[in-house]
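Bench log, entry 3. Co-assembly request; chain sequences pasted below exactly as received.
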Amino acid sequence: MAVSSHELIAGFADPVQASQQVFRSALKAMSEPGTLMQIDYLQQAPKGLDLSTWQLALSVFDPDTRVWLSPSLAASDAVVSNLRFHCQCPLVETPAEADFAIALHRELPLLIELNWGTAEYPDRSTTLVVQVPALSDEAYWTLSGPGIEHTRALRIAGLTEPFRSDLIRSRQRFPLGIDTFWCCDNRLTALPRTTFIEETC
Amino acid sequence: MSVEQQQENPETRARQHWMGVLAKSAGSTLQQHWQALSLEPEYQFIRQPETGLTMLRGRVGGSGQPFNMGEMTLTRCAVRLASGTLGVSYVAGRSPQHAITAALADALLQEDDTQALLQHELIEPLQAHLHAEHQQRAAQANSTRVDFFTLVRGED
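Structure output for the full assembly:
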């Protein structure tokens, strides 16, 4: 699909500063899992992407990052054109080939369809970025593990039952696993493969 | 990723031509002609001017195997006019101003009401300037040409 120029929107006003700040937020979310970060370096995202997803994409994707988009995002001219123009990232057909997979919460791939890395190179796994309807620190999940002093509460709305238990069970395959970013509007949090999740409600 | 073959149509060809002229002209010459027009279009940056390196590829004789010739500095920029038209530029060197002006000119050249004016007042003079420079350089090179004559040997 070619880039359609009428869909293109502006990237960061100050690309160097903004992408480093966004990267810093993503790193904080990943290293202190479940922390809610707010990122506001842009006011507009391509239709279909949340502000936080778009800012994360602008700061981490480059021509060597293979990206998979869930079906309705892949069908959106605005999303595809802007990713190709601003990030120049190759878009792949299946989630297993991707370094990053971006999905809407109702179009999540099965975890098993993603790339889990290998025992020698567990870092080559797919990072899953999910857009969810709501994120908050209500006590639906209790998180524990590296980066969390005692426990932390998190609520991610819109996840179906089989996916939640798949995610919780995926911790048994450590060091293999899937790291995840959760995006909602301009907010973002992360759950790396090291975080244990306990359902409290 | 392979480069998709662009559809060859007169519009694309015309745009390739003016983008080429804008990119190859010296920044100062372009600025001079641009300011003489005193156009001040309203615009927004889609991509701020950014400088980077690009690999130049060549083919021996224009048809041999492609090879990497070397890298060059390049500045690129994309702007959107208030009307929605997108202008893009890739220019040699590290001058953001050159890139912005070239992108604005590219956008205005796609607009029906400014196209004729810019073609006439900007692209044609720049083209003439480039042509003159090229001629001059060719003439300088030509004066150093050495012709080797080989005498035809007679049959023994």
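The domain at 14-131+175-192 of chain A is CATH 3.40.50.11310 (Rossmann fold). DSSP finds five helices and nine strands in chain A.
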